[in-house]
Design a protein that fits this description.
Keywords (chains A, B, C, D): ATP-binding, GTP-binding, Kinase, Nucleotide-binding, Transferase
Pfam family, one (chains A, B, C, D): RelA_SpoT
CATH superfamily of the domain at 2-145 in chain A: Beta Polymerase, domain 2
Strand order of the largest sheet of chain A: 1-2-5-4-3
Oligomer: homotetramer
CATH architecture of the domain at 2-145 in chain A: 2-Layer Sandwich
CATH topology of the domain at 2-145 in chain A: Beta Polymerase, domain 2
Distance between the termini of chain A: 72 Å
Largest sheet of chain A: 5 strands, mixed
InterPro entries (chains A, B, C, D): GTP_Pyrophosphokinase, NT_sf, RelA_SpoT
Number of strands of chain A: 5
Shape of chain A: flat
Pathway (chains A, B, C, D): Purine metabolism; ppGpp biosynthesis; ppGpp from GTP: step 1/2
Strand content of chain A: 15-25%
Radius of gyration of chain A: 20 Å
Number of helices of chain A: 6
Protein name (chains A, B, C, D): GTP diphosphokinase
Chain lengths: 210, 210, 210, 210
């Protein structure tokens, strides 16, 4: 127990620091009165029981855990619109406080299950009392609808230990389509909001000239 | 500025206390390994500029503000499933740390705009350094899909000062339907999850008997 | 482990709620630009290992724990000046969100060890998902110097399992005297600050008359 | 107002990030069951009114503010023992997430007022939505007794606008001596605690050999 706690302490630290950093982005957007591409940020260290499960399922020896499991530290950025995902990805790429190891785009190409999300694996340096330690962090970026659906799928996968029966799978499929539809309708509205904003701004500038 | 701050201090206190209390419910569910009906809780004190706007729009004199504006302090409970709303409402009704003044059910009967949400107006006692003060608090309970849509509608209303043009209104209507559809598909899955859980529990009990 | 967690959940909830409530007092004072009698507030649930130790040392059966141990939930208010303790005690007495079961004044009459602090035992109602539950809470009120000394004594007691050797005891005694002296010198300054404030206020009022 | 908020946003971000980082040090010590040299960490952005005061008093033009005022962002680490200050200073020096610009040791050589504290000026990189921005941060490291006295002196300086009358100054002097004495007595106890720990550890190792 104690050993696990000591192993995971820098991961907890990385999650805490990145939560403050990513939430700070949101605040900066709000203060600059631009549309913020970030709705909310969550983070967690993988629970010990899940680590043990995954390690035994994937045949990973304990001394290879930190190198092989890329999601011991996990951050999630949830956006309102599909288009915001790209904005967030660019922002993450422009930062200098970590290195990006890998990017996987499950938004353009969803998984067969229906899962959509943009994944980035970061190499994040934590300053510990024993010196600097680089930590792998998985960052997931997705819309609220994608997030909602993924939560449901995750708990069903958990129930059926990954072997979801055909009829349930079909229902999951339908809800994935409904989530996708919601994202599409929201994208259409988003353009509306943007155009509305342009009109308002133009009017204000004309008002100043008179 | 100073006067507003002093007026709003007990409202901020009420919001802070209720956030801890309602988030505590979520934690209790998680520790008891039951499905938690609460996905997340947010809270805010109405910004001063919005208070002034609303007061002048509704012709409310400043000394009637606290009695007439029921949403100076606002809390929101967001659920995964439509069915969770009822569970949360019952929980709120059973508490003894405030009085319920009014309930409005915009879930069974949505507004013409498409808005769905369950509202409760609470009378919450705050202990201040000048004695007890009772505060009106508006509590909104809604699913993630309802919440998502309501956020969009709110910002469009703000842009168009309440007079959303017909074509935008139509698009909003369509996204409201998409949100409703997502909630329905999720409800169907929810039953699946529950049935699955029953089967699992039954199996486990049979396992014990052998 | 699981059982302990379920037992302690309402205690954690009480500590979280009271931290927000007592920190709120501090904020109210700051906004009203009065001297705040509260420097900071801390809280904790007693660690499980300490509960087991204390129960076995005092021969308390597990089903009597909640009734016999009054400090499963502990809150601490730390003040700048000795005089602030009385102000805080009055404030606590005037609140209506809990009942006071007992008060012990180790400030007027310090323990033989040198320990000084004002203790209040509260009966605090927590709203759980199974209904209201009343929780015993120990509230300690002390100055920063008292707090500093108590922290040191606590860790020495822990080292020597309560049997501190005579020479160490003497050193502890001397540091208790130094802490007491600091509190006395600070009280003298405090009067200075107050008198200074009176002069300033009088001047300002004369200024207005001219 | 808006301009100030935009100017100070990266300073607030730096303070938030460093609070999480420095509090993380404390947690790492606690988990490794060593004596933690950090009792608590606080942080603040200088209030706008104080910035304006200081700029006009020191004749600093507004476009030189960020370069000339080193304490727009301020962090404070409070320790139990004088000896812990050195440990913390070494830890700060070993970190790679900022550069140290300057160190001033008011512990070895206290100010004539009686003020004692160790100051470090850091150059901390914040990742903003417009790119990286380096921020000056003042870090103060002091014991609880030093901190207590400094708080009192600060508020008296504020009252008397820096011109504290001779008799009050004398009383401040006496309380500074009392604070110094407390630190000295505590240092003596600290050695005790350490020696006690050595004895305990030795006994345990002997126990293992038998």
């Amino acid at each position: 127990m104690r050993k696990w706690e000591i192993l995971l302490t820098p991961y907890k630290q990385a999650v805490d620091e990145l939560k403050v950093k990513l939430r700070g982005i949101r605040e900066q957007y709000q203060k600059s009165s631009k549309h913020t591409p970030i709705e909310f940020v969550t983070g967690r260290v993988k629970p010990i029981s899940s680590i043990i499960d995954k390690a035994s399922r994937k045949n990973i020896p304990l001394d290879r855990l930190e190198a092989e499991l890329q999601d011991l530290a996990g951050l999630r950025i949830v956006t309102q619109f599909v288009e915001d995902i790209e904005t967030v990805v660019e922002l993450i790429r422009s930062r200098k406080d970590f290195e990006i190891i890998e990017e996987i785009d499950y938004v353009s190409e969803k998984k067969s299950s229906g899962y959509r999300s943009y994944h980035m694996i970061l190499n994040y340096p934590v300053q510990t009392i024993e010196g600097e330690k680089k930590i792998l962090v998985e960052l997931q970026i997705r819309t609220m609808a994608m997030n909602f659906w993924a939560t449901i799928e995750h708990s069903l996968n958990y129930k059926y230990s990954g072997e979801i029966p055909a009829d349930v799978k079909m229902k999951l499929q339908r809800s994935a389509e409904a989530a996708f539809l919601l994202d599409e309708e929201m994208s259409i509205i988003r353009e509306e909001v943007r155009e509305a904003q342009k009109i308002i701004t133009t009017k204000q500038e004309q008002g100043r000239k008179l």
